Structures are given as C-alpha cells and as structure tokens.
C-alpha cells in the first residue's frame, strides 16, 4: 500500500491538474510531502487587533476588525477599482482592490464583520489599504484562521496571477494537514526522539505551518532542523565508513631521494602547520586505505609547498602525481613553482592546458604513458580521455570548488588502483559549512603564515581621497613596487562592468602616463593569449600597474606587488575581498589593501568593510560571511553544492543543532557502521528520501575512491 505523503499533489482538494503543474514548475512541489516540507520563511503575529484611529505613519502590516459599511466602484476598464469602507467605531478606512474586482465583489457582504490584514497608506489625506486580506469573523468572534501566528510562504508572480495567493497556499496546507491527520509516519527512531527530547513529526509539521504559540513554533523548528541535519550528517559519515572499509589504498612505503633533495634545499623553514599536515598525509599513505583529505589554508599559508612535497613521496615510491588547477594562469604558476624548486632533482614535471601545442601534447602523452613524466600539472585538459598515465598514485585538486563531481571522478578512472586524493582550497570555510560540505573527508588546516610574511594593512577610502591614493601608489612604484587595481565583475552586468573597467583604465593611464608608468589590463572579455601576455608583463615586473576584474582573485602570485586597490569594494562579498587582499603581502615588504567605496553604504556593506579593516583572519571573516549572506551566496561554496537544498536549517545560525545532529549520527554509526541491521531500516529509508529529494545523496567521493 502506498504511503499517503507520496501521493501526487493534484489529488489534494483545491488543486487539480492545472494548479499541480504550476506548483511543480514554480516551487518544485510534486507530492504531498513536497508541499508539507515547503515551510513559511517568516511569521506575522496576528494576535493584536488595532483600532483604525491608532494608525499612524509608522504602521507597517497591521490587523483591523470592523464592519463593511459601504461598497462602491470607480474608474473604467483597466483602471476600474473596488472600494470597500471598513468601520470599527473609532474611525473608517477604505479597502481598495484593483485586481479581481468581480471575484472580490462577490465575496464581500455589506454589514458583515471582518478581520482585515494589510499595510495602511495615506492617499489624499485619508488612510487606505491596497489589496488587504479579508477574513470573515466566525461564530466564536474570532477569525476563521487556525492560528494567530501566520506563516508567509515564498511565492511567484505566476502563482499569484493564477489565484494561488499566499493565503490560498496556506489554506491548501491546512487542507493537506487535515487529509493526512493521523497518517504521518515517524522518520526518526524513538530512542533518538527521546534522547534529544524532540516532539513528534506530526506535531512539528502542524506547528511549523500553523503554530499554536511561539513555544510550539520553536519546538517544531528544532525538530525539523535536527532531522534535516541529522540525515545529512548520517549520509556523510556513512559514506566515510564505506570508503574506509571498502577501499584499499596505495602503500607509499618510503620517503626517498626526491623528497629529501627538495626538502634540504628549501629557502625557508616550513611552518609548524605545514610539517603537521605533511605528517597527516604521510600517515594516510601508509594506512593501507585511500586518502581523501581536504587541505584548507588561508591565502599565502603554503599549500602549494605541502602539495609538492606530498607529490614527491608518490614519485619516490614509483608513482606519478597530477595537480589539477581551475585556470590556466594558476596551472602555469604551479608549474613554474614546481620547475624552480625541482630543477636539478631529476624529477620531470610537465604542463598540460588547453593552449598546449599539438607537438608538445604528443610528447607529454608519450611521457605519461611510459612513466618518464613524474608530475603532470594542468587544467581540465588533464582529465581528457586521451590523457593516460603509466601509474597514477597521487592527485591534487586545487581550488576544488571549481570542479564538479564528474570531473573529480574522471581523474580516479585514470588509475587501476585508487590514487590518494588531496583537495585544496584557499577559501576559508566555516566549521559548520565544512562539516556539511566535506563531512566525509579528513580535514587538515594550515593556520600559520610562513616566516617573513607581514600582515596586509587594510584601509577604507572614498571618492574624495582618490587622487591622494593615486599619489600613494606612485610613491610605492618609486620604491620599486607594483599595484593591482581591481574592478567588480557582476554576472548580471558584465557589459556595464567592462565599461567601468575601461573608464578606470583610462583614468589610470592619464594619471600614470607612459613611458614612466606601464599599465597592463586583464579582464574576462580578452582572448586567452592577450590575457596571458598582460599577466606575464605584470608578473615579470615589466608593468607597474595591473588593472583587472576579479579574474585575478585566485592564484596570481606577484611577490613584488605591495598595493591592492579594490574599486566599488561594497559590491564584493567578504570572502572575495579577502581572496583579493591575499594577492599582496606575498613578499617581505609592507603591503596595503585599499577598499574604495561610494559615500553611501548599506548597513551590510559598512559591516563588511569594517570587518575587512579590523581582521586578516580568513576563518573569522568566513564565519561572518556565512552569518551575513548564508551558504548559498558564499563565494567558493556556490558551485560546490550543498548536499541538497536545506529546507529549514541555516548553517550561519544553526551550528549547535548541526553539532548535536552530527554527534547523534556518529553514535548511531558506532553501533552499526554501514546501517545494515534491521533496526536501521528507518534510517536507511531516510537516506533514500535524501537521495530522491536532493537528486543525490551528497558530493559522492566514493565515486573517486
């Protein structure tokens, strides 16, 4: 017998085929379950009734109670409007309707009492309400609404234009709850419900839509947040158990000549954090299991050196290593760093990108197949089908959020044995988000800067200080330094931003005239060749200033650059501002990040700018970014994909719920690591639902293990 929550939504009274198709298209609602798990995003307390005489200019949405004493119409054709005058003993107010006039006229009865809810506005010296909600007062003298806390749901113009207003949607939820009353099955084992002190699922679903009171709403929210995060963590931790139990990893039995040769010639002492992470990676490679490790490190913390030394352990054991970077600029930079550090070691490093010429490609293909190339560095080109390794044993994926699951999986297929995998990111990820995105990976953090790195001084300036700022750049150039000037690139307005950059470039070359000053320019509308030429001009010190869009955010390493100017800094998120700031301060000289903004800033923008000026801790900024913008908007996480849409949880605020959910999930798996026992059937069913509703269980690293 099928479960009632799996019923198609068209079978709910009041919906039918046409509305069902619309709900699926607009909100993704296909079943009763989808509808029940579409939650209000806010609530309005309608327990208070105002008198009409209490209305003033500060009134937002308010509730009135009174009788309709007059109904009239005005205007013609599209300008026709219906006016119903409401009176409550203290005064009167006009309720004005421009749409659905005939329908509303048929619903309103003169001299009947109504509860009216809407936003008052002043017109010709008198108060009115445009398209308020009207609800007839029932026999008990109250509104017929089932709760005084009214949930407000997300909607669309198409839904509203087809008669599914927020109020209609809520009424449909009420109908649905009545239809499934007594038939909702519990999704969590009773032991968990009791130990965490959760209300029943029926209570939670009823009170999330129609709260009895604030306490019931809080209990419902906690139950639903806990359940959502519990199954997410259960999925991640179970996958880790599957990987740990099922995959035999390549055994790197020694640290040999290549590693020791490079280590002994390092120009500086590794930080304690770098040494710790290399030991963690070394432990993984002798464990007999495949490594799947995430390396988080703030900009400039030395991730590349860790990756190179780890790759050399693979080479010492007769295996090849591969480093995949998201852009050609970053791939070339890695290749140069590896070549410089390994010159004379006998380790052969090759670079493969979309720009690699056919003859070079043939040589690289041959070297990979016969094993004479030890380390391959490249872009997406390294995962093409015709790239075949002799013996791939170690894979590094840099700025991993820019690669999809399929691309990572294709690297796995290039080896008969599962290679060890190190994924790296310079985007600091808050703990709550890391637990959600990468809960099945082992995590290492580089939390120290290499010796000699000085913190970057961050300064906020406005337009009136522009030319003083230009004079400061001139003084830095006279000291032999270089400067970045970055303009925002907003997807919705690429053309506009291109013109902003053009204007800015013109202003720069006028103030910094050639030949005394050379200015290079890099933006997304250039060809790869032109972009690479200008970037190289700056990287080699032949250009004093690089005017660019945020394409230079990741990976550009110019130690001589001491100034980063970010134009329209208010248009960037915290994480992106921090990434851009990380492009300077890479040498031994004092460096500066100058945040240029307009005079008027929103409250959020002001907070971001103040935070940037007060701290250089990327993790502190990432936590703040998560609180302010949410996980879906955070730079660096947008493409990595949360496991599935979080219906009710907020990772910026629900860290304690997530921690409890993870702890309970870990306890369950300690007793039944793969959820194979009969008592775990309910939990297996929950994970199946997660796969169905999210389209995938989670980022599935088992595909590359």
TrEMBL record:
Q: Which reaction does it catalyse?
A: ATP + H2O = ADP + phosphate + H(+); Couples ATP hydrolysis with the unwinding of duplex DNA by translocating in the 3'-5' direction
Q: Which GO terms describe its biological process?
A: DNA recombination; DNA repair
Residues annotated as domain Helicase C-terminal: 465-627
Q: Which CDD domains match?
A: DEXHc_RecG (cd17992), RecG_wedge_OBF (cd04488)
The EC designation for this entry is 5.6.2.4
Keyword ATP-binding on this protein?
Answer: yes
Q: Which family does it belong to?
A: Belongs to the helicase family. RecG subfamily.
Tell me the protein's name.
ATP-dependent DNA helicase RecG
């Amino acid at each position: 017998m099928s479960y009632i929550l799996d019923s198609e939504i068209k079978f709910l009274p009041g919906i039918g085929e046409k509305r069902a198709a619309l709900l699926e298209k607009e909100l993704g609602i296909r079943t009763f379950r989808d509808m029940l798990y579409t939650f209000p995003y806010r609530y309005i307390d309608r327990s208070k009734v105002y008198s009409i005489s209490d209305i003033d200019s500060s009134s937002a949405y308010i509730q009135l109670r009174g009788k309709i004493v007059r109904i009239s119409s005005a205007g013609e054709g599209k300008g026709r409007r219906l006016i119903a005058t409401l009176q409550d003993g203290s005064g009167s107010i006009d309720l004005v309707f421009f749409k659905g006039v005939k329908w509303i006229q048929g619903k309103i009865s003169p001299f009947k009492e109504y509860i009216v809810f809407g936003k008052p506005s002043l017109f010709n010296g008198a108060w009115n309400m445009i398209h308020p909600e009207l609800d007839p007062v029932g026999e008990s003298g109250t509104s017929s609404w089932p709760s005084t806390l009214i949930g407000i749901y997300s909607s669309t113009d198409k839904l509203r234009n087809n008669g599914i207003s927020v109020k209609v949607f809520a009424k449909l939820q009420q109908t649905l709850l009545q239809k499934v009353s007594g038939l909702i099955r519990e999704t969590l084992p009773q032991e968990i419900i009791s130990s965490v002190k959760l209300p029943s699922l029926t209570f939670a679903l009823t009170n999330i839509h129609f709260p009895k009171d604030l306490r019931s709403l809080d209990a419902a929210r906690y139950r639903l947040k806990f359940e959502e995060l519990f199954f997410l963590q259960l999925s991640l931790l179970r996958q880790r158990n599957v990987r740990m139990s099922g995959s035999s990893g390549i055994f790197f039995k020694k640290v040999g000549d290549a590693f020791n040769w490079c280590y002994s010639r390092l120009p500086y002492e590794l930080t304690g954090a770098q040494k710790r992470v290399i030991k963690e990676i070394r432990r993984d490679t002798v464990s007999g299991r495949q490594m799947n490790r995430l390396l988080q490190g703030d900009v400039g913390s030395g991730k590349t050196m860790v990756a190179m030394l780890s790759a050399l352990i693979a080479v010492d054991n007769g295996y090849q290593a591969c480093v995949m970077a998201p852009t050609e600029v970053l791939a070339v930079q890695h290749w140069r760093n590896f070549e410089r550090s390994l010159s004379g070691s006998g380790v052969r490093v090759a670079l493969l990108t979309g720009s690699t010429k056919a003859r070079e490609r043939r040589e690289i293909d041959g070297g990979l197949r016969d094993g004479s190339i030890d380390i391959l560095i490249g872009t997406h080109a390294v995962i093409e089908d015709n790239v075949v390794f002799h013996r791939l044993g170690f894979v590094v994926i840099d700025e991993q959020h820019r690669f999809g699951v399929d691309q990572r999986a294709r690297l796995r297929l290039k080896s008969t044995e599962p290679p060890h995998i190190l994924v790296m990111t310079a985007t600091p990820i808050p703990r709550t988000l890391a637990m959600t995105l990468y809960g099945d990976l082992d995590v290492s953090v580089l939390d120290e800067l290499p010796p000699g790195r000085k913190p970057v001084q961050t300064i906020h300036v406005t337009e009136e200080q522009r030319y003083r700022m230009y004079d400061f750049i001139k003084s830095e150039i006279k000291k032999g330094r270089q400067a970045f000037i970055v303009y925002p690139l907003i997807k919705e307005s690429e053309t506009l931003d291109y013109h902003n950059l053009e204007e800015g470039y013109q202003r720069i070359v006028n103030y910094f005239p050639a030949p005394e000053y050379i200015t290079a320019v890099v933006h997304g509308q250039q060809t790869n060749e032109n972009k690479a030429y200008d970037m190289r001009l700056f990287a080699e010190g032949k250009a004093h200033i690089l005017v660019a869009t945020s394409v230079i955010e990741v990976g550009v390493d110019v130690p001589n650059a001491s100034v980063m100017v970010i134009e329209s800094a208010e248009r960037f998120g915290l994480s992106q501002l921090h990434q851009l700031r990380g492009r300077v301060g890479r040498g031994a000289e004092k460096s500066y990040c100058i945040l240029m903004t307009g005079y008027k800033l929103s409250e959020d923008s002001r907070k971001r700018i103040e935070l940037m000026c007060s701290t250089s801790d990327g993790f502190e900024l990432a936590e703040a970014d998560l609180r302010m913008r949410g996980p879906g908007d955070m730079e660096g996480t947008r493409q990595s994909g949360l496991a599935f849409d979080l219906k009710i949880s907020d990772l910026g605020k629900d860290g304690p719920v997530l921690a409890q959910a993870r702890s309970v999930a870990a306890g369950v798996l300690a007793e039944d690591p793969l959820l194979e026992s009969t008592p775990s059937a309910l939990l297996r069913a929950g994970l199946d639902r997660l796969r169905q509703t999210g389209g995938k269980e989670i980022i599935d690293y088992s595909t590359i293990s």
